[in-house]
């Protein structure tokens, strides 16, 4: 989900969104999105996945300016949440199709890691 969010932000708003693997998306080192996931699975199948995606779209983050940002603050104008949602849904569908076509999550993660920076690598 974080990969889809980062790609959606890049495509829709031309901002350099980066991953802080596995559940945060950053712009210029500040958090713009957090993701929470819950899954129930058995040995041979996934019963359900609940996914919560929180994106700072048109919010003010002034009280947390060192840690957080929003798309509005980065672009210096309000953004279309409809445009954001449309871009995000397209990217989620693309990532799901990519994941379904690969044999392991590791190969999917390795392929995407080549395209997006991770916060941990920047620190080391």
From TrEMBL:
Ranges of residues in domain BPL/LPL catalytic: 1-100
Pfam families membership: BPL_LplA_LipB
Alphabetical UniProt keywords: Ligase
InterPro entries linked: aa-tRNA-synth_II/BPL/LPL, Biotin_CoA_COase_ligase, BPL_LPL_catalytic
Record's GO cellular component terms: cytoplasm
Sample GO molecular function, one term: biotin--[biotin carboxyl-carrier protein] ligase activity
Protein name in UniProt: BPL/LPL catalytic domain-containing protein
């Amino acid at each position: 989900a974080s990969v889809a969010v980062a790609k959606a932000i890049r495509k829709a708003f031309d901002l350099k969104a980066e991953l802080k693997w596995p559940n945060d998306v950053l712009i210029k080192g500040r958090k713009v999105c957090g993701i929470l996931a819950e899954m129930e699975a058995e040995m041979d199948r996934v019963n359900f996945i609940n996914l919560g995606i929180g994106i700072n779209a048109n919010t003010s983050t002034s009280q947390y300016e060192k840690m957080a940002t929003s798309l509005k603050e980065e672009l210096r104008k309000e953004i279309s949440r409809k445009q954001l949602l449309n871009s995000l849904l397209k990217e989620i569908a693309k990532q799901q199709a990519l994941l379904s076509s690969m044999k392991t999550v590791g190969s999917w993660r390795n392929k995407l890691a080549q395209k997006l920076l991770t916060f941990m690598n920047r620190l080391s």
